[in-house]
Specification:
CATH superfamily of the largest domain in chain A: MetI-like
Largest sheet of chain B: 6 strands, mixed
Distance between the termini of chain A: 45 Å
Radius of gyration of chain B: 24 Å
Shape of chain A: globular
Order of helices and strands of chain A: HHHEHEEHHHHHHHHHHH
Number of helices of chain B: 9
Strand content of chain A: 5-15%
Structural class of chain A: mainly alpha
Number of domains of chain B: 2
Distance between the termini of chain B: 42 Å
Mean pLDDT of chain A: 85
Largest interface: A-B, 18 and 25 residues
Helix content of chain A: 55-70%
CATH topology of the largest domain in chain B: Rossmann fold
Order of helices and strands of chain B: EEEHEEEHHHHEHEHEEHHEEEEEEEEEE
CATH architecture of the largest domain in chain B: 3-Layer(aba) Sandwich
Oligomer: heterodimer
Number of helices of chain A: 15
Strand order of the largest sheet of chain B: 6-7-8-3-9-10
Mean pLDDT of chain B: 89
Chain lengths: 355, 356
C-alpha cells in the first residue's frame, strides 16, 4: 500500500541520509581531502600558514635513480684496493651532498647497490624508507595473496563435507578472524619471542639442535614471521567465502562426473575449480587489498623494524602523518597507495574477465 | 546391452526404510519405466542402480554380475539427470566428450564418438556452443549425448523431461522412444508422469512407499490393474471409484450395489469376496456413458461439463455425495443440474476387495 511515507521523495532521502552521510564523512571527504593535502606543505600542528607546493611531496617521495661510481684510482691510473682485494669507492655522499656537478642526486641516500665489473651501481632515492616500505608491502602481497588463498581453499574443501561435528572444525578455523588483530598480534609476539613457544617447540622437536632465534628482531625473519601470522589470522575469512562458492555448485554435476569415473583431481579440475571462478576473483581481489593495507600487525609487533625490514606503505603513511606530524607527506603516500591498489585491481579484473 | 536383476533390494536412512524389498527383472534391450507419486522411492531406486546411493540390503546384478559395491563408473551405466547436469563452462563438444577426456581417450576417438552421438541426436550444429546458449531441450540432448558416448550397458533416465515445457516434452519423449529403437539398449526411466510411462515403456513398474505395486506391460496395467492404487494411478482422467456392498459371490462374478448404483454382476477376476463385505468398484471415465433408454444403472446429477472438442468430460454428483467423471468420445452438451443415468459394460469394471 502506497502511504505518504513510502512515496515521498523527501522521506527516501531522509532514510538514505545516515548511510550516505557516514560514507561521505569517513570515506569520500577524507579521500579528496588527502588528495588536496598531498599538494600542500600542511603539517599536523603548525603556526605557519599552509602553502600550495604542487607535486613537491610526490617528487621527494618517488625520486629514485641509479648512480654509477667508478673506483678510486691512484696516480698511476691503477684501481685502489683494500686488503681483501676489493676496489675502493668514493663515498656516495660526495655525489649527493653539495656537489654542484650532480644536482640531480642532491639530498638522495643509498638504498642498495650492485657491481658491474669494477663499476658500482648505486640505487639512490630521496626517500629510501618509503621505497623499502613499498618493497616490503609488495613482498608481503606476493606471498600472502596466493598462499592464503590456496590454504583457505584447501580448508574450505575439507570442511565442505558431511561429517559429524563438522561445525566444530568450521568454528575452529574461523575463530582467529573474530579475534581482534591487535590481540592476535600481541599473542604472536609472545610466540615469536626468543624465549617463546615457537622456539621451545622447535628446540624440543630437534632435540635441542635448534638454538632459537629472535624471530621479530632479525631483519631476515621478521617480515616472514609477520606473513605467517597474517595468513593464519585471516585464512578463516576467505575459507568461508570459498565455502559459499563451493556450495553453489550443483551436486548433480559431481554425480555426473562420478558416473563418468572422474578421479578426485579430475573432479576438482573439471567441476569444482571452474565453478569457483567468480569466487576466485573475489577472494584474490579482497586478499590483495587487505594485504596492501597491512598496518596493525606492524604497529603492534615491530614498529617497522628492525632496520626498516618490516615497514609498510600504510605504516609509513601513519608514521609520517601523525608520528612526524607531516600530514601532507602521509597524504601523498596514501594517494600513491590508492593508485597502486586501483591499478592492480583493474589488472586483476582484466585478467580474470569472462571471455 | 545387458540384463538387470534386482533381488529384495532395500534402502534405509537410519531407522527409516525407504525401499522395502524390491524385485525386478529387466531383460536385454528392454525399456522399463519406474512410475509412482513423489516420495515413492523411484528416484532412490534408480540412484541405487547407478551407485549414487548405497544399497542397504539385497542384490543388484547387471549382466549377471553382482555390482552392489562397484563404483558408479564401473557399473557400465550412463545417467541422464532431470537438471541435465551438463558443465556450464564447457562447450557442447567438451561436454559430450567428458567421459572420454576423463579416461584420456585419443583425439581421433573423441572426435569420432562425439560426431556419432551428434548425428544420432541431430545436434551437429550445436557442438561449439556453450550450455548458456542452449534451450532446455537442447541441453537435455547434450546430456543424452554424453550418455551415448559412454556406450553403456544400461541407460538410466531420472525424470529427464520434467524441466521442459509441455510441447517440448512431447517431442523429446518421442525422440527418447526413437533412441531406444535405434540403440536397442536396456533403459530404465523414472517419471511421475503416467503418459510418459504408458507411451515409452515395454514394462512399467508402479511403486508406492518403497514397494512394487505391479509390474507389467502398459496395456496390461491399464486393463488389468492388480490393486486400487495401480487402477487409480494410471489413466487420465483417473478411474472412478464407488463404495459398494457385496450381495452375492458367484462363479466368476460378484453381485454388488450401492445407494446410487443398481444391482449389477461384475467379474471378480479371482479375487475373493464375502457376502456383506464393503468393496470398491472402479470404472474408467471412458467406459461411462449416458444410458440411451433413460434407465442407466448409475444415478446422479450433472455438475460441470468441460468440452475439449475431441471429448467431453462431465462431472457427475451421485446420491451418496461422491463424484464420478464420464469422458464421452464426442462433443456433447450436458446442462448442469439435470438428472443423468449412466451405464457401463460390467466387463470393463474392476472390483477390489479393499476400501479407499
Amino acid at each position: 500500500m502506497a502511504s505518504k511515507l513510502t512515496t515521498s521523495n523527501r522521506a527516501g532521502w531522509a532514510f538514505a541520509f545516515p548511510g550516505f552521510g557516514l560514507l561521505a564523512m569517513f570515506i569520500v571527504v577524507p579521500f579528496f581531502f588527502a588528495f588536496y593535502l598531498s599538494l600542500t606543505n600542511q603539517r599536523l600542528i603548525s603556526p605557519n600558514p599552509t602553502e600550495f607546493v604542487g607535486l613537491d611531496n610526490y617528487r621527494s617521495l618517488l625520486s629514485i635513480s641509479v648512480l654509477s661510481i667508478e673506483p678510486e684510482v691512484d696516480d698511476a691510473g691503477a684501481v685502489v684496493r683494500n686488503e681483501d682485494g676489493n676496489p675502493k669507492y668514493p663515498r656516495v655522499r660526495t655525489f649527493t651532498r653539495n656537489n654542484p656537478e650532480y644536482p640531480q642526486y642532491a639530498g638522495m641516500r643509498e638504498w642498495f647497490r650492485w657491481h658491474s665489473g669494477d663499476t658500482a651501481k648505486v640505487v639512490v632515492a630521496t626517500d629510501v624508507v618509503f621505497w623499502k616500505s613499498l618493497r616490503n608491502t609488495l613482498m608481503f602481497v606476493l606471498v600472502v595473496a596466493p598462499v592464503q588463498g590456496a590454504i583457505a581453499l584447501g580448508l574450505a574443501l575439507l570442511i565442505n563435507q558431511r561429517l559429524r561435528a563438522i561445525n566444530i572444525y568450521r568454528a575452529i578455523y574461523f575463530m582467529p578472524v573474530v579475534v581482534s588483530i591487535v590481540v592476535v598480534s600481541l599473542l604472536w609476539r609472545f610466540l615469536y619471542a626468543e624465549e617463546g613457544l615457537l622456539n621451545s617447540i622447535l628446540g624440543a622437536l630437534s632435540f635441542g639442535m635448534f638454538e632459537g632465534r629472535d624471530w621479530l628482531g632479525d631483519p631476515d625473519t621478521a617480515l616472514g614471521a609477520i606473513k605467517a601470522m597474517s595468513i593464519w589470522q585471516a585464512v578463516g575469512f576467505h575459507m568461508v567465502i570459498w565455502l559459499s562458492g563451493l556450495q553453489t555448485i550443483s551436486p548433480t554435476l559431481y554425480e555426473a562426473s562420478s558416473i563418468e569415473g572422474a578421479s578426485k583431481w579430475q573432479t576438482f579440475r573439471y567441476v569444482t575449480w571452474p565453478g569457483l571462478r567468480n569466487t576466485a576473483v573475489l577472494v584474490l581481489i579482497v586478499i590483495t587489498m587487505q594485504a596492501f593495507a597491512l598496518f596493525a600487525q606492524i604497529d603492534v609487533m615491530t614498529n617497522g623494524g628492525p632496520l626498516d625490514s618490516t615497514t609498510t606503505v600504510v605504516f609509513q603513511a601513519v608514521e609520517r602523518g601523525y608520528g612526524k606530524q607531516d600530514i601532507s607527506g602521509g597524504s601523498a603516500i596514501s594517494v600513491v597507495l590508492f593508485l597502486i591498489v586501483l591499478t592492480i585491481s583493474l589488472i586483476q579484473r582484466y585478467l580474470t574477465r569472462e571471455k | 546391452m545387458a540384463t538387470v536383476k534386482l533381488r529384495d533390494l532395500r534402502k534405509s536412512y537410519g531407522d527409516v526404510e525407504v525401499i522395502k524389498g524390491v524385485d525386478i527383472d529387466i531383460a536385454d534391450g528392454e525399456f522399463v519405466v519406474f512410475v509412482g507419486p513423489s516420495g515413492c522411492g523411484k528416484s532412490t531406486l534408480l540412484r541405487m542402480i547407478a551407485g549414487l546411493e548405497d544399497i542397504t540390503d539385497g542384490t543388484l546384478e547387471i549382466d549377471g554380475q553382482r555390482v552392489n559395491d562397484l563404483e558408479p563408473s564401473k557399473r557400465g551405466i550412463a545417467m541422464v539427470f532431470q537438471s541435465y547436469a551438463i558443465f556450464p563452462h564447457m562447450t557442447v563438444r567438451e561436454n559430450v566428450a567428458f567421459g572420454l577426456t576423463i579416461n584420456k581417450a585419443s583425439k581421433a576417438e573423441k572426435e569420432e564418438k562425439v560426431a556419432e552421438a551428434a548425428r544420432i541426436l541431430q545436434m551437429e550444429h550445436l557442438l561449439d556452443r556453450r550450455p548458456s546458449e542452449l534451450s532446455g531441450g537442447q541441453r537435455q540432448r547434450v546430456a543424452i549425448g554424453r550418455a551415448i558416448v559412454r556406450d553403456p550397458k544400461v541407460f538410466l533416465f531420472d525424470e529427464p523431461l520434467s524441466n521442459l515445457d509441455a510441447a517440448l516434452r512431447m517431442d523429446m519423449r518421442m525422440e527418447i522412444g526413437k533412441l531406444h529403437q535405434d540403440l536397442d539398449a536396456s533403459m530404465i526411466y523414472v517419471t511421475h508422469d503416467q503418459v510418459e510411462a504408458m507411451t515409452l515403456a515395454d514394462k512399467i513398474v508402479v511403486l508406492k512407499d518403497g514397494k512394487v505395486m505391479q509390474i507389467g506391460a502398459p496395456m496390461e496395467l491399464y486393463h488389468e490393474p492388480a490393486n486400487l492404487f495401480v487402477a487409480g494411478f494410471l489413466g487420465a482422467p483417473s478411474m472412478n471409484f464407488l463404495d459398494v456392498t457385496v450381495h452375492a459371490v458367484n462363479d466368476t462374478t460378484v453381485t454388488i450395489s450401492s445407494d446410487s448404483l443398481d444391482q449389477i454382476d461384475v467379474p471378480h477376476k479371482g479375487r475373493s469376496f464375502t457376502v456383506g463385505q464393503a468393496a470398491t468398484l472402479g470404472v474408467r471415465p471412458q467406459y461411462l456413458h449416458p444410458a440411451a433408454d433413460e434407465v442407466g444403472r448409475l444415478h446422479g446429477k450433472v455438475i460441470l461439463t468441460e468440452r475439449l472438442g475431441s471429448e467431453t468430460v462431465i462431472d457427475i454428483g451421485l446420491a451418496d455425495g461422491s463424484k464420478v467423471i464420464a469422458a464421452l468420445a464426442e462433443d456433447s452438451i450436458q446442462i448442469a443440474g439435470t438428472d443423468v443415468n449412466l451405464d457401463f459394460d460390467p466387463n470393463q469394471a474392476h472390483i477390489f476387495p479393499e476400501t479407499r
